[in-house]
Amino acid sequence: MSQLICIACPVGCRLTTRTREDGTIEVSGNRCPRGEVYGREEALSPRRVLTATVPTDSASFPCAPVRTEGTIERARIPELLSTLYSLKVKLPVSLGQTCLESFHGVRVLFTRTLPPDEVPAVGEAGAKGEGRHQVP
Predict the structure, then answer these.
(1) ω into residue 92 within 30 of 0, thus cis?
(2) Tell me: the pLDDT tens digits for 34-76?
(3) How far apart are CA 44 and CA 126, in angstroms?
(4) What are the distances in angstroms from CA 51 to CA 16, 31, 72, 117?
(5) DSSP bridge partners of 100
(6) In terms of CATH, what superfamily is 51-110?
(7) How does DSSP assign 23-86, residue by residue?
(8) Which of 7, 72, 82, 92 has a Cα at 20 to 30 A from 30?
């Protein structure tokens, strides 16, 4: 038996799930049919949408935000995070662009547009050695 709070709708019912002797899942405490489906799925195979960041090659934008397009098994989240953190993304990227084509059948997408990392030319503000005041 386990207790959880349903997130299928805004009500937030307190659900209780119990596995019967025949292997079926009994859900109680739900006020709508979606709560029963959520409780059963959570008991059998919990799934999540993952949001994270991936490293980039940019000094201005060292990380780019991403999310899974659909849900993945909760047990696979550490594996996906390890994969994402090992990447080195080259900017620019666009909102909705694919970061990872398929992780166990689910795409990972960028959730923000980031421009290319522009290095200022010598003489421009921000260029190495330019625009800085030295204290004697």
Answers:
(1) yes
(2) 999 999 999 999 999 999 999 999 999 999 999 999 999 999 9
(3) 55
(4) 28, 29, 11, 23
(5) 108
(6) CPE0013-like (3.10.530.10)
(7) SPEEEES-SSHHHHHHHHHHHH--EE--EEEEEBS-SS--EEEEEESS-EEGGGHHHHHHHHHT
(8) 72
Residue count of the chain: 136
**φ and ψ at 37, to 5 degrees?**
-65, -45
Distances (CA, A) of 39 to 12, 46, 48: 12, 9, 14
Residue reference for tokens 């990972």: 108
User: Cα–Cα distances in Å, from 135 out to 90, 124, 125, 132?
Assistant: 37, 21, 18, 10
- In the numeric block, which tokens belong to residue 112? 């923000």
Domain boundaries, given as residue ranges, for the chain: 2-44, 51-110
- Per-residue model confidence as pLDDT tens digits over 67-109: 999 999 999 999 999 999 999 999 999 999 999 999 999 999 9
